[in-house]
Amino acid sequence: MVVKKWGTLLLSLSLVLAIAACGKSNGNGASNAPSSGAASTESAASETASQAAEEEELVPEAGAKLVVWEAQEQVEYMKAVGAEFEKQYGVPVTVEQVAGGDQGSRLSTDGPSKTAADILTLPHDQIGLAVKAGLLLPNDVYEEETRNDNVETAVTASSQGGVLYGYPKSVETYALFYNKDLFPEPPKTWDEIIKFAETFNDPAQKKYTIMWEFVGYYSYPFIASYGGYMFGDNNTNANDIGLNKGDTVQGFEFLRSLKKILPMNAGDISYDVKTQLFKEGKLALNVDGPWSVAAFKDSVNFGVAPLPKFPNGKDSISFSGVKSYYVNAYTSYPVAARMFAHFASSKENQLKNFEMTGAIPANKEAGEDPKIKDDPFVSGFFQQFANSHPMSSVPGTDLAWEALKATFISLWDDPKLDIKTSLDKMVQTIQDGLAAR
């Protein structure tokens, strides 16, 4: 945790530049900074950084106290990390529960009003808009250490425009959780699943063979395994939308055919619903991610395997992502916040996160730890990770998520809708939204 004088001097400069940038107009005549004097804030930040530069180690601001946003499944882990950070540095840490998917949007409104957390977690597909809006501070002081310690994919995903912003936390994709009492061996194809459902399903008793949430993230295999994609050039070119290309109509036709083994409306299938059913043994197969491993360890005899092959013979192609800690550009304690983000993303804490929640580390040394290499669940995610597409982080990804979710739900719930017309309309909606920005 030692940062020598050159690093602290770099911080001093970056703080001045960051705070000065926050005071500039956002192009609409409105200042991104709070109404209190930007000059005095800049001066105070420079003074704090200069004082820290006199020390051999980076020192948090006097009176610093931090707020961290965390998703429900990560709260207890983060409370433990916060307590250890306070023990070592004397900076109290408050953990507030905010759903993972809501943290980015909350930051866009609460950041400028100075009511957002100092540190939050974002999946890498959300950082494009956050960076464009000036909501995140770069990971500058700990950049070299972060690049050396974590897998390259995680570092790249936590960057935007060649600038590193994130402090990698975990890598992830989703896979097939299977109840070993019902499936001694995991099914390898959708045909096996459909056949099993013929004798297992009993909607009156709330017994179902398989469930997944009807959002673009989990439903993406029905597109990607049939030749479609979100954006071109490995999800970096928002001018090339591929959600209606290839044989995606065929993919959606197969999706619709599964209504016979999952006779529920999309809106009735939630994380809480399928988690409870899986715990009760009423759901045989659950499409979920490593963050849910801990929820089942004490209640279900289960394993994790790659997603099933499709009738066209193709592997299921999932979305994969990287979650990292980010520092709010409007934090009142940029030194302490940087220190905490770095502390929370250490090898030791990534392993702690794995032990408490099942999150797969991005740290290279942690990945070689026997706890990871010998874990019976992680191998299933790693196998699926090999058949995944990294999520896009370009501005416009949010429009694609919204349109995808609406389209999946409407085509599943209403069998009368024409698939090709719906897909073309979805792509046009995304294009119109991009053009309006």
From TrEMBL:
Region forming the signal peptide: 1-20
Which UniProt keyword terms apply here? Cell membrane, Lipoprotein, Membrane, Signal, Sugar transport, Transport
Query: Which sequence ranges form a coiled-coil region, renumbered to this chain?
Result: none
The record's annotation in SUPFAM superfamilies points to: Periplasmic binding protein-like II
Can you say where in the cell this protein is located?
A: Cell membrane
Is this entry keyworded Cell membrane? yes
Question: Which GO molecular function terms does the record list?
Answer: carbohydrate transmembrane transporter activity; maltose binding
* CDD domains on file: PBP2_Maltose_binding_like
What top-level branch of life does the organism fall under? Bacteria
Q: How does it sit in the membrane?
A: Lipid-anchor
Instruction: Name one cellular component (GO) term.
Output: ATP-binding cassette (ABC) transporter complex, substrate-binding subunit-containing
Enumerate the Gene3D superfamilies for this protein. Answer: Periplasmic binding protein-like II
Biased composition regions of type Low complexity, renumbered to the chain: 28-52
Q: Which family does it belong to?
A: Belongs to the bacterial solute-binding protein 1 family.
Q: What is this protein called?
A: Maltodextrin-binding protein
